[in-house]
Amino acid sequence: MPVTAAPIAILSALAEEQAGLLQHMQGARDVVLAGRTVWCGNLWGQPVVLALSRIGKVAAATTATALIAHLGVDRVVFTGVAGGVGDGVQVGDVVVGTSYLQHDMDASPLFPRYEIPLYGQAVFAGDVDLCGALQMASDAALAGIRHQGRAPVVHRGLIASGDRFVNSAAEVAALVGQLRAAGHVPLAVEMEGAAVAQVCADYDVPFAAVRTISDRADDTAHGDFRTFVQEVASVYALGIVENLLKTLSK
Questions:
Q1: At 43, which helix (H) or strand (E)?
Q2: Is the distance from CB of 103 to CB of 161 less than 8 angstroms?
Q3: Residue ranges per structural domain of the chain
Q4: Nearest to 229 by CA among 36, 34, 52, 7
Q5: How far is CA 95 from CA 72, 189, 211, in A?
Q6: Of the listed 16, 17, 93, 115, which one is catalytic?
Q7: What dihedral angle (degrees, nearest 10) is formed by the CA atoms of 244, 193, 60, 126?
Q8: What is the pLDDT of residues 33-59, one digit of tens each?
Q9: Average pLDDT for 102-128
Q10: Catalytic-residue membership of 163
Q11: For residues 68 and 8, what is the distance between their CA atoms, to the nearest angstrom?
Q12: Of the given ranges (37-51, 108-122, 222-236), which has the lowest mean pLDDT?
């Protein structure tokens, strides 16, 4: 990918998920945009905007729209945590989203379940080049790391978003079963990615997301969430973003 003067947006829902990135930013300056404080500067050779999307689809969509429309970001990358729901997706693994869907979208019978009204589609694809770069960055960042006695695995696939913290085995079973019946096989669930993917599609801005699996979205999902974000996910994010930006600078 060629280096451009336009900044890359790095989004996360929680401040802990971006821990360390601001400390490495050179020439950092803060800007208040749509009620949010965002940071502009350089990270590892790239002009970057760091922003907290806040939690949920509407907040994330607002943030992405503001950054694209007012700061001219030309790529958007989302880092954060998610619940693992795919076969073989374990706590401590990473999922690079190649596609995104809103699992709580249901305008039936006017439109098929999961389809975004008037778009004619339920799934928004991540940018192929950016997803590929994000996977390579994830592989590099996790090399040599072990979590709970095993090497983390980097997965690629569908991420499902909804305005709900999924935290029961029964809910996971129902959610995944209904998605699979409609032909969708999610690897992870979270609360922002599909909304940002839709905004980026509207603006024709490349988008990709990487999620560290903090739990299996079951009855223990709320357990040590904050501790995991601080001690594991933030470390992963720092390494992944560093490798990604260094790759894009070449």
A1: strand 36-43
A2: yes
A3: 8-245
A4: 52
A5: 27, 10, 5
A6: 17
A7: 60
A8: 999 999 999 999 899 999 999 999 999
A9: 96
A10: no
A11: 10
A12: 222-236
At a CB cut-off of 8 Å and minimum separation 6, what does 219 contact?
167, 168, 169
pLDDT tens string 169-218: 888 899 999 999 999 999 999 999 999 999 999 999 999 999 999 876 66
From CA 58, how far away is CA 65, in angstroms rounded?
A: 10
What pLDDT score does 226 carry?
Answer: 74
CA angle 220, 225, 230 (to 5 degrees): 155
Options 93, 115, 215, 242, the catalytic residue: 215
Phi, then psi, of 74 in degrees rounded to 5:
-110, -5
Instruction: Say yes or no to pLDDT of 2 above 60.
Output: no
Question: Hunting for tokens 């980026």 — which residue is that?
Answer: 200
Between CA 173 and CA 175 the distance in angstroms is 6
Residue 231 among the catalytic residues: no
- Residue 69 structure tokens: 């429309």
pLDDT at 203: 97
DSSP helix/strand/coil, 80: strand
**Longest CA span, the chain:** 52
* Distance of alpha carbon 191 from the chain centroid: 9
Count other Cβ atoms within 10 Å, centred on residue 169: 14
Q: Residue 220: which pLDDT band, with cuts at 50, 70 and 90?
A: low
The CATH code belonging to domain 8-245 is 3.40.50.1580
Which residue is it, tokens 């939690």? 55
